[in-house]
Design goal:
This protein is an all-alpha fold. The protein contains seven helices and no strands.
């Protein structure tokens, strides 16, 4: 392989890494702003989140196209092949996070009226902050190839599930106690479920980062999340 070819190959791998990191920053911002739109009732911000989803879609398509081309022309093996495959899979998970963020933003537009505010909005905000933090951490692990941080995100996924369960019970209590809260609480239930699913995608990415670095699943991993690698 000539020096020119090696340089081009390295640049193509670097492009995938940089684009995956950029896509991660976009996804984190989308989810963060979607939650903020719900809490603040900021319809303009909600609309920006909805419009911004197209950029994530384009980024995923670009990563997939670059990865397929690299595999076809360079035939990477071992660590390089795992890097390419993981970039595609991580991009797919981030694109789904963007879709879920868009769904949350759509609910924010519907809930913008004062009559649809709920006492549980603060609980949704706390859950959103936790999910955004986890997504940011796992993308940091991906960027730095930090296997310990990836495993930490994976192990702490249960915290998001626990917050979702607690919020679910809280919203049911509100709905049973005061029928006026039913509409707002129903919207918040959907928002909370979307946040819980974003947490699942962060866990998927943590598994992918571990696989990317080691070629093996996370030790002791029993959660049925390996569909992300299929």
């Amino acid at each position: 392989m000539s020096e020119h070819t090696v340089k081009a190959y390295d640049e193509e791998l670097a492009f995938l890494s940089a684009e995956t990191a950029r896509m991660g920053r976009l996804a984190v911002a989308q989810v963060r702003d979607a939650v903020k739109a719900v809490v603040s009732g900021d319809t303009a911000l909600g609309e920006r989140v909805i419009d911004g989803d197209a950029e994530l879609d384009l980024a995923e398509a670009g990563i997939e196209q670059a990865a397929v081309k690299l595999i076809a022309l360079r035939q990477p093996v071992s660590v390089d092949l795992r890097d390419v495959i993981s970039a595609m899979k991580i991009a797919g998970n981030l694109e789904r996070c963007g879709d879920l963020g868009k769904n949350i933003a759509k609910r924010a537009l519907v809930m913008s009226g004062a009559k649809l505010r709920s006492p549980a909005t603060g609980s949704v905000e706390r859950m959103g902050q936790l999910v955004v933090a986890r997504l940011g951490q796992v993308m940091e692990a991906s960027r730095d190839k930090n296997i310990e941080l990836a495993a930490q995100v994976w192990r702490r996924d249960e915290e998001i599930d626990q917050q979702y369960d607690a919020l679910f019970r809280e919203l049911l209590t509100f709905m049973m106690g005061d029928p006026v809260t039913i509409t707002a609480s129903t919207h918040l239930l959907f928002i909370a479920k979307n946040l819980e699913r974003i947490g699942d995608h962060a866990t998927n990415i943590a598994e992918l980062v571990h696989y990317q670095i080691t070629g093996d699943p996370i030790p002791g991993a029993t959660r049925p999340k390996w569909d992300a690698l299929q």
